[in-house]
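I am writing to request your help with a piece of structural work I have in hand. I set the record out below, with my sincere thanks for your time.
___
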Amino acid sequence: MATRTKTSSKCTRTLTKPVGSPVHVQYDELCNRILELESSIRFVALADHLGLLIATVYRKGLVPLATKDETAKYAGQLVLLTGAVSGGKFMSKVGKMQYVVGKFENLVRATIPIVSDDYDKYYLLMSLDVDSDYVHVIDRVLAFLRENHSAF
C-alpha cells in the first residue's frame, strides 16, 4: 500500500491504495466528480464493506477537522453502525435505507450505502458545510449514483 497526495486545480486527494490500480483510480475519479456536484461538499470517501477507505477526496483549500488516522477509524466505525442499522427484521416494513445523516456543530456527515450488481457493498461517506441544504445535496448525489451505478 502506498499513500500519496495529488493536487489539481479543483481539489486535493489523498490516495491510500495500490498505486496505479485501475479500479481504485476509477473510484477516486468518481469521488472527485461527486465533490464537484456542490460547493458545500467538503469531503467524499468510498469505503468497502469492512470500512477500509478505498478513495478520499477533499475540497481544495479545506483544512480537515480530523487526521487521516481519525478518518480511517471513523470510516470503520460508521460502516459497522450503518450495516447494523440497514438490515434487520424491519427492513421489509420500512424499506431499504437510502442514507444516514448526522448534523454536528461544525459539519454535516452523510453515509450512503451502495450495493453493486455483483452484490459488493460500498459506503459513500461525505461531509458538508453545516449551513448547507444537505437534503438537496444528498438528493443530487443519489441521482448521480443512480446514473453511474455501473461504476461499482
Observations:
- The chain has one domain: 2-151.
- Confidence is low (pLDDT under 50) at residues 1-22.
